[in-house]
Amino acid sequence: MEFTKESPILNTICDPYGRRLNNIRLSITQRCALNCFFCHREGEFSPSQEMSVEEIVRIARIACEQGMRKVKITGGEPLLRSDVVQIVAKIVPYAREVSMTTNGIHLAEYAEDLHNAGLKRVNISLHSITPQIYQKISGCNSLSNVKDGIEAAIKHHLEPVKINMVVLNGLNVDEIHKMIEFSRECGFILQLIEFQPIQEVSKQYWNQYYYDLSEVEKWLEENAVKIHKRSMHSRKQYHLEQNGKLAIVEVVKPIHNSVFCQNCTRIRVTSDGKLKPCLLKNDNLVDLLPIIRAGEDDEALREAFKLAISLRAPYWKE
Ligand code: SAM
């Protein structure tokens, strides 16, 4: 069944904690040219294979039919797949919104085609605008490509453009104000993200680089002219005004945050086709590819979704 953009949500599924699933984060590759030392790789550490376009689109369609009609394409770096525009174009008819998170390096080449394929908006990862620090964090010297990518995203209306900045103690905390000014100038939304500890990453780096965003959030609260609370994760967006120009800063603060988990409405799919109910858990994955590759019907996939959703539980509890 193909939905039009206006179709009402026919089915929505709640997990055992009453959280209504309305969005899916779909990884399409684990390949990435960057080597950010803190990267959680969407909680995926030993992917076995990539899915075909048809497999990805079928999973997205089943998700959309069950109410998860906001689809975020991620990776790895999604723009490393040469069929990425085709993937977007084929998911668009089923979804209310298709968006993407990208490191931005190849975005200038793809922005127009992605827009034409129906991509609504992008999140671009940019953890520093100081070349040496950007290189230290990502292992690459590609800051100027990312800036070109931001410009192209704005030019081709992949809006609102959001910039993801993972805040890292001793590395980029001092750049927060510079990034707020940059966002005001360019007209994107700045997302300040707390470093989440995932598997190996947590052991090696978390103690050294984790930065609690509480103080930053307090400052934002005191200086905002308006605060908007989003339903997803109950995240707050702070509107800061200077000389009549607005900067919008969103804070993503999941650590020890039960409210964040209570308001989580998302499920993930790994690049090798496993439903992943929570970024931070690996003991409750549901493998879709054996079902698809055995030629089973959509009902079998719907059952697999129901199982994964029944396994959802908040990671951070009160
Ligand atoms: N390559 C794409 C990109 O750079 O946006 C998509 C994948 S990346 C894993 C998705 C987002 O997760 C990025 O914004 C990244 O900064 C963020 N991220 C990665 N590791 C993280 C961590 N340990 N804690 C918080 N956010 C993290």
Could you describe the 3D structure shown?
With 318 residues, the protein is α/β, with parallel strands linked by helices. It has a single domain (23-310), classed as TIM Barrel, CATH 3.20.20.70. 34% of the residues lie in helices and 19% in strands. It has helices spanning 53-65, 84-91, 107-117, 131-138, 143-155, 176-186, 199-209, 214-223, 258-262, 289-293, 298-310; strands spanning 23-27, 70-74, 97-102, 121-125, 162-167, 189-194, 226-229, 236-242, 245-252, 266-269, 274-276, 286-287. The chain has a twelve-stranded mixed beta sheet. Helix 2 (84-91) links the parallel strand 2 and strand 3. Helix 1 runs parallel beside helix 2 (84-91). The protein starts with 22 loop residues before the first strand and ends in an 8-residue tail after the last helix. Residues 1-9 have low confidence and may be disordered. S-adenosylmethionine is lined by residues 32, 38-42, 74-75, 77, 101-103, 125, 164, 166, 193, 195-196, 198, 201.
In short:
This protein is α/β, with parallel strands linked by helices and 318 residues long.
Task: For this entry, give a set of tags.
318 residues, alpha/beta, TIM Barrel, 12-stranded mixed β-sheet, 12 strands, 19% strand, globular, disordered N terminus, binds S-adenosylmethionine
Overall number of strands: 12
Gross morphology is globular
Q: Give the SSE order as H and E letters.
A: EHEHEHEHHEHEHHEEEHEEEHH
CATH topology: TIM Barrel
- Oligomeric state of the chains in view: single chain
Say which molecules are bound, naming each kind only once.
S-adenosylmethionine
Q: Nearest-angstrom radius of gyration? A: 19 Å
Helix content: 25-40%
* CATH homologous superfamily title: Aldolase class I
Extract low-pLDDT stretches.
1-9
Q: Report the end-to-end length measured between terminal Cα atoms.
A: 41 Å
The CATH architecture classification is Alpha-Beta Barrel
Question: What number of domains?
Answer: 1
Main beta sheet strand tally, sense and closure:
12 strands, mixed
Average predicted confidence as pLDDT = 93
Strand order of the largest sheet: 7-8-9-6-5-4-3-2-1-10-11-12
